[in-house]
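Bug #77: duplicate submission created two jobs. Keeping one. Sequence:
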Amino acid sequence: MAGTLNKIMLIGHTGDDVKMHHFEGGGCIGRFPLATNEDYVNKTSGERVSNTEWHNIVVRNKAAEICEKYLKKGDKVYIEGRIKTRKWTDDKGMERYSTEVQCTEFIFLTPKDQTGASGNNQQASSPSSSSSAPQQSQSQPDAQPQEQEEDDLPF
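Kept job's structure:
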């Protein structure tokens, strides 16, 4: 195979609110941890095992601002992006490495009425905020096919 692929798709729960970093040129990035869980039954002992994997998510510019506004700790979200390893120097002068997911696409999976209390107040008080691009991309595709499927079902 001549080409390569660096793509990751995750569905998980946010471990914290989005932490924003703004730059002088007007750009910004947002960072937040995402937890994914794996549940299985150990074949030798028969007991249920649950493992949690933590991923460092990085979103940029307008996407970061949208995530900061709508994502709260514990919200379920679909993340699509690529894996990137960064080399940096800590306070003691040691070289360190961090593996991150550079987010290119995301879909909020937690219903609006189940988000944090501050998110509910914002959405309820300003109807225009619920018509933003990510909310439309999440609710419109889901709403239209469901209505069509319900109408087309023979039972």
